[in-house]
Recover the amino acids of this structure.
């Protein structure tokens, strides 16, 4: 059985939307336990409790939250058909094909755009996870359709075996 999910508009590349941040949370928590005057060892400990990390940008997080809601809405329309065929979401085995229809002749990182779509499908409980056990066969296809469409979009085909309800 194949389910179709559609995402319209800009699809950010997950890898290219990463930002570096300084994480001071552990340092601030440790600082609360210290007296007003601290010694050299305590100051050194504070420094070691501060570290850099990479996270998604606020723009990417906002896009992902929107994508999850769009996929949840589309999932709700497929729920009854899936249940009639013995399928329960999130799917634990699926072939995922992402077709990217681009408006504009820009260079794009299609695999990273697909990665963001996969993550949103997992968070929307369409797929159990995005591992090779759940998605053993994935592909992305992309082409510029500037002359034929008004906005970019992704059409995602998720095919899963129908379970025999009788066992």
């Amino acid at each position: 059985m194949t389910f179709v999910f559609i995402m319209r508009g800009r699809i950010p590349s997950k890898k290219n939307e990463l930002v570096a941040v300084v994480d001071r949370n552990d340092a601030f928590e440790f600082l609360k336990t210290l007296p007003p005057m601290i010694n050299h060892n305590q100051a050194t400990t504070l420094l070691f409790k501060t570290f850099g990390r990479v996270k998604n940008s606020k723009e990417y997080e906002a896009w992902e939250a929107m994508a999850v809601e769009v996929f949840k809405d589309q999932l709700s329309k497929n729920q009854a058909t899936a249940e009639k065929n013995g399928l329960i979401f999130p799917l634990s085995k699926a072939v995922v094909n992402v077709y990217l229809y681009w408006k504009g002749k820009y260079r794009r990182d299609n695999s990273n755009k697909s990665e963001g779509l996969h993550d949103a499908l997992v968070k929307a409980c369409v797929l159990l996870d995005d591992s090779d056990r759940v998605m053993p066969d994935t592909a992305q296809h992309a082409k510029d359709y500037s002359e034929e469409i008004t906005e970019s979009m992704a059409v995602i085909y998720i095919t899963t075996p129908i379970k025999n309800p009788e066992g």
